[in-house]
User: What shape does this take?
Amino acid sequence: MSSPEIPKSHPRYESLLTRHRIEAGVDRGITSKQGLIAQGRGEAFDYLLGEETIDSAEEAERVAAAHLLRADHPVLSVNGNVAALTPREIVELAEATGSDIEVNLFNRTEGRIERIVEHLREHGASDIKGKTADGRIPGLDHERAKVDADGIGAADVVLVPLEDGDRAEALASMGKTELVIDLNPMSRSAQSAAVPIVDNLIRAIPNMTEHARSLADADGDELDSIVDSFDPKTALSDAERRIREE
Ligand code: PTJ
Assistant: This one.
């Protein structure tokens, strides 16, 4: 999915490539039009963060990898933006951490679910959840509450990249450990997360996979100590300071 029209030497190559991918996602009917708006908002924060993974985000990515590795039933939630931007990378993260993948949409339509499942299959995924929708997140209206009972419904740890604030809060109040990727440290999703990762999805997912691979032989005690040493409030205030001051 690379764009031959964008020269790699362009100073904003990564940002332009990302836009191209989101646009292609909308054209194919996998990304919603609201996904374009969300991307624009994310870009503004990324620009202020220097379009790089800051140290506290790198740490959060390692902690999130440790959470996924020690979970009983970890699930990676995929929406239209994730499918467009990081389809292969999410499959690799699922493989490295033993996680399930569930397509779970804010603006849910059966057609878009089908197209995203197909798109992920083309990028190497098998057994993708999200079509059964026989579970519900309490406190949300019917369409937005739908999950698979044996997927997100049964998960103890859920990665929700770019989630709507209401749903992120509702999932957290179900007692699930929520790992959120969101470039806005002030968003309700980031604020309700056990592990807020303030980084661009396109950098965060491959980084998490790398950390998971290097922690593959870590024992339970090591994973516990990585998880226990993390403070979400410090990670959020660090990102906010970076946005406001640099
Ligand atoms: O595909 P669907 O129907 O599930 O819809 C997905 C979107 C993203 C449209 C939906 O969940 C939504 O409306 O989200 P929001 O409320 O716009 O929140 C998106 C958040 O993600 C914002 O805080 C953005 O700053 C952030 N964001 C956008 N692009 C990126 C990002 N964070 C990390 N990486 C990005 N590439």
